[in-house]
Structure prediction request, 580 residues.
Amino acid sequence: MRQERLRTRGALILTLTCFLIGANTSAAPAGAAAGKLSGVVRDSTGTPQMGATVEIVPEAAIKAASLGLLTNTQGIFHGESIAPGLYTLRVTLAGFLPTIQQHVRISAHVTTVVRVELESMFASLDQLRRQPSTASVESDDWKWVLRSASITRPVLQWADDGATTATNTSYDAQVAHPRARLDFTDGARRPGSVSNLPSAPATAFAYDQDLGGAGRLLLAGQVNYETEVAGGGIATVWLPTGSLGVGPHSALVLRESKLGPDGPAFRGVRLEQGGALPLGDHALLRYGAEYVLVGMVKSATSLRPRLELDARVTDVWHTALIFAEEPGAATPLESDEREIGSELAAALNELDSFPTLLWRGGRPVLEGGWHEEIAADRKLGPHGNLQVAAFHDDNRHVAVFGRGNGLPAADYFQDYFSNGFAYDGGASGNWGMRLAVREKLSDSTEVTAVYAYAGALSPADVVDAPMRNMLRDTMHNSVGASVSTKLPRLRTKLNAGYKWVGGEAVSRLDAYGESLFQMDPFLHVGVRQPLPKFARGRWEAIANCDNLFAQGYVSVNTQDGRSVLVPAFRTFRGGLSVQF
Prediction:
């Protein structure tokens, strides 16, 4: 009898041990590197939901036990010591449709934050009721709402507890994560350079394709409608982790266009590899390099590396060391933009990412140089940021733009589409400093102010000399301010700003800061107006105006003739955009 009781007790202990082992399958072993998961559950109105069940299921093992969590009164849940890997989140709550978020990545020593939005059963039934009688209830939108929430997108940011955080953002099921975008536009973003997209009517497209698991492939292309000078391009962006601006990414861009009816053909190839790598809990390394090959009669090449080390000093102070190839700051894939459909916008931006092509001494050269910077950032309350930076620019070839025709073709590279030209201003080196303040006044309104003191090329008092001999490095002051907002009733997205530059400057003043804070010279206005729904997708009218008052133009008399130098062209680019 005693032996039977011992056998029974041993069986119970063994059963309990197996149960505990299975219940902790998703937890990290003792001493192993583990991650954390936090999040908030809200409804479509933004109200936190208490008592929602969050089930965390590892995707690596089919029969692995799940981890269950409950939200508190603020709709927040938190999980500790979770083994790194991919997980599926199942969120359920009475009165709401079940929501699934797949491929949520947990990384060691990183807190992954997710935002979950529950869809009300009544709202979904009302959507079904409003379907036309000829439409089937098996439409893609209806199945998508039942099947899952929108795909998550991790974004590296700093948390107050000193750890690096990966945030997964999801949006409303009706407008989130568009898979394709079409733009019907006229105009160019940066006229005067044959290496950029031409100023002509064109159609552009972008498409987001899942590759299984967490991988994604972004495709983009554009073609214009000029029969005698047709041109276009195609871009592919591979995101192995499925995340925009986090982890590695690879890009390939091809572009070709004809420079006038009787001109040569421009062909360009651009290869880019980059990403972000956390270094412990207090540092983040952004890295990248691109190889550019462009050719016409002759070819020009450029290898353009970049490194940025961000370090967290205290809860409010961050520092950054930057070494990058000019021109430009963050690439489109490293942008902080978190708008809906920003992945598709980033793919389209890749088409316009070639450096300016110049002509000197009978051969093509690419604009470029080195930019070194040390910056310190301080938080100003919960929604503000102050940056102080000192930098040095050492440029080998500075692009100077101008207007006019008929100048000698030896060094003046004429743009067929814009009645402008690009000129190699030669080498330039100078020091500078920048002071920038950014404040988010509300969920839809953000203001930015930037002061910079740096060098730029200015015309000297020299008569009848080659233009390159007339340009000198001089120091200038600049002050700029911009506001980005969304009008409440019209839902108009407006971005407007003005940058004043002291004195005559014919090249960009603090080009890196202009790209970083989107602070173009003089008056610039951008508008995106949603249109009433009349077809499938989200339709918007878009318009972008740069240097609206045509300021900063400088007239000079050179040995080659009279010309007007333009630090920033007055341009207009507009049309229609649809996302679906």
Notes: The longest helix spans residues 2-23. Confidence is low (pLDDT under 50) at residues 11-26, 124-176, 329-338. The chain has six helices and 34 strands. The helical segments are 2-23, 121-129, 140-147, 342-350, 467-470, 511-517.
